[in-house]
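User: We ran a pulldown and think these components assemble together. Before we commit to crystallization trials, I'd like a predicted model of the whole complex to look at. Sequences follow.
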Amino acid sequence: MTTSELCLAETRPLLLRRPPLVFALLGLLTLAMMLINVAVGSVDFTPAEIWQALTGPRDASTTGFIIWNIRIPRAIAAVFGGAYLAASGLLLQIYFKNPIVGPYILGISSGATLMVSFVMLTSITVGWTLFTPFVSTLAAFAGAYGVMLIVLAIANRVKGGVTLLIVGLMMGYLCGAVSAILTAFAEKDRIKGFVLWQLGSFSGFKWDEIAILLIVGGAILLLLYLQSKPLNAFLLGEEYAASMGVDIRRFRLLILLCACALAGMITSMAGPVAFIGMAVPHMARLGFGTSDNRILIPGACLMGGLVASLCDLIARSVMAPVELPLSAITAFFGAPIVITLLLQRRVKL
Amino acid sequence: MNATAGQPVVEVHDLGVGYRNRPVLRHLDFSCHGGQFVSLLGPNGAGKTTLLRTLSRHLAPQAGGIRVQGRPLESLAALELARIMAVVLTDKIAPPLFTVFEFVALGRYPHTDYLGRLGSGDRVAVTSSLAAVHALDLAHRPFADLSDGEQQKVLMARALAQEPQVLLLDEPTIHLDLKHRVEVMAILRDLCRTKGITVIASLHDVDVAAKVSDRVALIRDGGLAAWGPPETVLSRQAVTDLYDFDKAEFNRHLGGIELRGAGDRGRAFVVGGMGSGALVYRMLTKRGFALATGVVHENDLDCFVARSLGAECVAVAPMEHINGAAADRAKELLAGCDLVVDCGFPVGPVNEANLALLQAALELGKTVLSLRGDLPPGLRPTGGQRYLACADAARLLEALETLTPRHAVPIHGEESPCTP
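Assistant: Here's a predicted model for the assembly, 769 residues in total across the polymer chains.
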């Protein structure tokens, strides 16, 4: 064969020829955004004060407390929250072969909201004071998984992406209706807490929550990266993937569990954060010019972290000292991006 | 490649396929050898796709078993099977942002490491797969921008990149233009001949299948109606039964399907022979004429075409002089026809009787349309008789339209574009 001597080289878009360089650049930007998030806030500190708080001994000063217990956890939560939501969205878009699914649409968020509304608005959990700090987190997690399972059960019976979206939306309305009824009967001060939770925020993360976020989420991301080869095969559809040697059943379960764990974890701790899970994977795809998940998984995570940090910064600083709801800011970013993509036909429905 | 010796690559024994509560095919038995081209033929919904999906292990068999290279299909590990068998499906897929090269490289899945990195061997395999489907020039184009035909070739290249011994294809030529239809079939045949790959494909074109296949499976009525080489299996009757033909007929000598007409526009007697009549038969049938023809020889192309079109055909044994009995029978048929067409057959000693037939037509007062440039030797048109010489098929058509307007029984046209 003459063709064995001849061998085509792979050609890739500019950004892809040096992915490590691009990743490093994105990483630096994200790090810079984290530093800005630590430095900027409703209380003004001079750079020297911040430097001292960061490097000096941890004392009981207000500066040290604000920096270490409020701003740094929040900055870390924003980066990882954004990264996990983006990764989750990427997985779900591949799984459903539908470019506009995201954790927000598939019922993960509405399930979490439903369960949290029970915890925050009713007295069901009054006796459980022992677990109080974690009850709402656990409830959100359970709700996310529960509703996602229902949506999936329905999705298995009806084929077609648009149907699935409608099912997801309807589940959202149903959960919203229950929350609304609970709100009608709830006490005023509880309602405020619930409404604030519903708008999503990276504030109030505790260090042990951050630890869970980093360890569990990091492990899942690593696992996902190692699955990027079957994920790529999955882009051709289930039947092709199976014919190439992917164990479809196990793989499907793995993707869904991972996607739900990542999004469920963030939603239970930060509340529903809109659009990052849907829009960031598209930004990554177009930015890197590829569908190759070996590039997209780390790429989407870095972009997600960057975008979420930026949105959090805007939410905190634009109208300071009033903090804007995070989901409002992400929607301002995300909705135009999705609409633009659809209009340019870069994304097919 | 010796197509029959050695162990079969795919063996199917008493196989039943179908979905949970709906058996589709039962008691299938056949085996495919290395380098064979196997076509699955049958009407839509007969179960060709279901069978292919069972062979590719996407569906579990309901009964019986499949052996691949002598081993039970279910015992093969997923990656092992992927190195033996590759598929090309009908679903339209257009994953975004893939170049053709990257897309074909996905087919290296069972050969690459845990992250799917391409080694130099993989690049060579991708390149030669693209070369095998004549698509090297597409390598750097985005997959989603290709035409249907180009995508089909690239899909085949992706399957080839798996370096399979068996290639399963579901309707590989559906939705393709003629150029790509022919090209895809030629590529598949080459894969069998040069690479020894066993190709199992469901096909719609029975004429194409007859020409490329080593084995055909006729699938109908929940089972295998026939299996074997197309030369023995694809008879006129088998194809008619397979597709429930009513107004069409497969002719294995012609290697194609002839479409019958309504035959409600009067009856034409065609004097042909030596291949001169084939086109005229088809033209008249298409225009709704019922046909009678004679006198032709049994081995004449005209005889095959006329019979497939359902014409009443007077024929004599090959090489024989057209004798009195046949000529009389032809004259009888001719007398009952509304018009007569002379195809301009070459005249020789064996078919001189056909000239006499034309003379008889004139004497009977029939209108004779002729594709012959000038009067054949010995033909004597006399006053009142109509002998219309038409320069070509187009002129003949015009004359027909004038002489017999649709749904009007002939003849008596006052004007005609043909010169008397």
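Chain A is about 75% helix and 0% strand. That may be worth checking against your pulldown data before setting up trials.

User: Thanks, that helps.
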